[in-house]
């Protein structure tokens, strides 16, 4: 196994009564002061993304890196340098990401991995596979199989609306496509014991056996031979996986298994979580109303939610705020702006104005609404243009183009 807290790092004793952070692919619980990402890097045994790696990425792609790399939203990786080596040597690689379709509408946080994956697809000009894990959501949630499958189709429209290139992108529902991956799935399953799966994912004896089998299904798309029509049944093409850090346990397992079945280990690039409107301690949840801006929200809903729910780092009174200034480190409007306001000089100006007290809470909230509204409206316009025909194109197993830009 690659290093984990369980094997390598002595547990740090926590103060009495303190809430410990606990992050699994299905649950994100933070400590008192939000998520400690450095601790997560240590626990999971991944590597922080540093300035040198970003510069190398710019050299290799010949393009500026995405602001989310510069601003540390994507902050950690496994073996990203091997991907850059491959790109430099003009060797092929592909991207793999996914989504568990558990809700009708996607919120802003859901869009982040896909928007970032689109940047990677454009910057490196490589094929992309997107796994829709309707099977996973059926096994974990109170959802019928038919409903999970239907949600795949709804969510796929949102994903396509991000702007992926249909000549280079294959999207699949596990329920439909799993047979093609099955040879790799059973190879993976044979390499992982029940006690390993329990240790990695925290399953207990009362979890259903589908859960125990599922990690191999999420691992399989990391191996190119799971896609015979794209890469060929005997291929071994390198893979890079953009994902939120909570998905890392799957790929730690995958990297452990890979050499034992003759495949290259996938590389991974991790994002932090996007905070809920109520504050930086949680990630947005599609099931908590008012915790998220949805991609289906109307402009007045965005305005109302930001005004009503967005946790403020502003002071009690205007007088006090003018004197002490707002606290950008906890202010949700500022946190959201630091992700979605791509104009560096505007963001810096807002930071200065707000933290000096010249800008008030109502004003920074207005800045946020002005940034988010066009993004959400543009998404709605793009989604409307995604016809059933377009969906079918992306979901059809077929050859994909490599580097024709
Ligand atoms: N398990 C993920 C979710 O619930 C979906 C997923 C499958 C995924 N494969 C992936 C996410 C690869 C990132 C990368 O959303």
TrEMBL record:
Gene Ontology CC: one annotated term: cytoplasm
NCBIfam families linked: trpS
Name of this chain's protein: Tryptophan--tRNA ligase, cytoplasmic
Family: Belongs to the class-I aminoacyl-tRNA synthetase family.
Chain spans, region Disordered: 1-21
Originating species: Acanthamoeba castellanii (strain ATCC 30010 / Neff)
InterPro entries: aa-tRNA-synth_I_CS, aa-tRNA-synth_Ic, Rossmann-like_a/b/a_fold, Trp-tRNA-ligase
Main EC class the enzyme belongs to: ligase
Primary residence: cytoplasm
């Amino acid at each position: 196994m690659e290093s984990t807290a369980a094997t390598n790092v002595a547990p740090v004793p926590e103060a009495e009564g303190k809430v410990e952070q606990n992050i699994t692919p299905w649950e994100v619980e933070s400590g008192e002061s939000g998520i400690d990402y450095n601790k997560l890097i240590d626990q999971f045994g991944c590597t922080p993304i540093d300035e040198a790696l970003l510069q190398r990425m710019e050299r290799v792609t010949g393009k500026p890196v995405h602001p989310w790399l510069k601003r540390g939203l994507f902050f950690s990786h496994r073996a990203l340098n091997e991907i850059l080596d491959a790109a430099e040597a003009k060797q092929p690689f592909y991207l793999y990401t996914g989504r568990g379709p558990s809700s009708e509408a996607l919120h802003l946080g859901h869009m982040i991995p896909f928007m970032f994956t689109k940047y990677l697809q454009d910057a490196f000009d490589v094929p992309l596979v997107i796994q829709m894990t309707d099977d996973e959501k059926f096994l974990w949630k109170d959802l019928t199989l038919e409903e999970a499958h239907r949600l795949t189709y709804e969510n796929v429209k949102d994903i396509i609306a991000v702007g992926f290139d249909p000549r280079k992108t294959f999207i699949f529902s596990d329920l439909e496509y799993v047979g093609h991956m099955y040879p790799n799935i059973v190879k993976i399953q044979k390499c992982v014991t029940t006690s390993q799966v329990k240790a990695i994912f925290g399953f207990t004896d009362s979890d259903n056996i589908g859960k125990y089998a599922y990690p191999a299904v999420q691992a399989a798309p990391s191996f190119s031979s799971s896609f015979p029509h794209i890469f060929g049944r005997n291929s071994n093409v390198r893979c890079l996986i953009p994902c939120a850090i909570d998905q890392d346990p799957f790929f730690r397992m995958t990297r452990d298994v890979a050499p034992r079945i003759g495949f290259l280990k996938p590389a991974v690039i991790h994002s932090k979580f996007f905070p809920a409107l109520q504050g930086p301690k949680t990630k947005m949840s599609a099931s908590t109303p008012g915790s998220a801006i949805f991609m289906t929200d109307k402009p007045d809903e965005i305005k109302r939610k930001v005004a009503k729910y967005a946790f403020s780092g502003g002071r009690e009174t205007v007088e006090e705020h003018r004197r002490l200034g707002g606290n950008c480190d906890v202010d949700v409007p500022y946190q959201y702006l630091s992700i979605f306001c791509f104009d560096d000089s505007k963001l810096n100006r807002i930071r200065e104005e707000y933290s000096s007290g010249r800008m008030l809470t109502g004003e920074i909230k207005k800045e946020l609404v002005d940034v988010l509204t066009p993004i959400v409206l543009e998404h709605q316009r793009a989604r409307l243009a995604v016809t059933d025909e377009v969906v079918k194109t992306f979901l059809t197993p077929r050859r994909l183009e490599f580097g024709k830009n």
